[in-house]
TrEMBL record:
It comes from Massilia timonae. This is DUF2325 domain-containing protein. The lineage of its organism: Bacteria, Pseudomonadati, Pseudomonadota, Betaproteobacteria, Burkholderiales. Residues 162-262 form a coiled coil. Belongs to the UPF0751 family. Pfam families: DUF2325. Keywords: Coiled coil.
Amino acid sequence: MCDKHASNVPCPADGTQGSRRRRVWELSHACHCPLVGVGLPLGGLRKLVEKVTGGKVLHDDYDIHVGTVSECALRTPVADAVQKELERRYAQHVQRFRAAKSTEQVEAMWDAAVAAGDVAGAFWAGLSHPRCSTALEEKMCRDIHMVQHQAGACARADINKFNAVVADNARLERDVARLQERCNALGQEKAVECERLENQLRAARAATIARDGDVQALRAELARLQASVPDLDTRERLAERVAQMEAREQALRAQLAELKAARAPAPTPAPEAEAAPEPIQVAPVATPVRLENRSVLCVGGRSSSVPIYRNMIERVGAQFAHHDGGLEDSSSQLDASLAAADLVICQTGCISHSAYWRVKDHCKRHGKRCVFVDNPSVSSLVRGLQEAATEDTQPG
């Protein structure tokens, strides 16, 4: 269709013309179709035609292309407009091709432009060059024809690639949408979990603050109670001391009961009815324990009774020693006195708790005779000596 009016186009001379560049309408009509198709975009071509005609063109792109190619066969307003647009659009290419001074140089520049893929501007600059021969013009038309075929094939390949990319993009968008939905769900779950943990943290903090307040209140109450009871520590120590003394008293009472039970005389059997009456025998009085040249230690007792104790002991030939049970005498003296004594009389009611246990432990470990007297009196001391005498006279 682009060959319409081809018979009206004069054939150019073979490279013998001067230095003036050729106009669009001076080119071979075979050049007009690729020149308009490659050199002018469809949108720009439509605007150019509408500007020349002074109205909106209702034809489609193909009709505008064919009409423009036909108008370029002669010098028409459309051809003039196409000439000016090509000159404006490809002025740099035209300027670069001015360096070519022969047909061979123009051909070399055209081949370089084809290899570089920059054919639109080079096509117009080469065709309009004054050294473009008929053979070169034909070669350029064949080259641009093949370039267009290659461009179409590349365009189809690009379209296929584009369609594949569009499909992949749609798939990826669906995947992204699913992932986004999942992320939103996870975000909501995390938000709920964080809110729950924050509530627990606030509750724990509130409970801690409440406990701290209770602790402070209890400490204040304890301080108040301690302040209201003077000498509380001393009273506690005294209460502990009283408890120890009570325990000791119970132990001594139990020991005293055992001693009294041991001293109780055996019941006298009743005489038989047929037996003759016999004179009543008086039980002998227990003789004192032999204390000659022995050392007797008295632990405890009243200080006013110590001289009496000494007189009684020394009168039977024994040596008398006394320790107050820790009231004034030191505990180290008690250990030395216990080691030197042969008999120990412990006045349990007048010694310290520590001294009592030390006396008892020492006598038990060393097998030393010890008499415990619960009443610090002279009669109690006499009874203690009698108990020692009784134990000494019993058969081993």
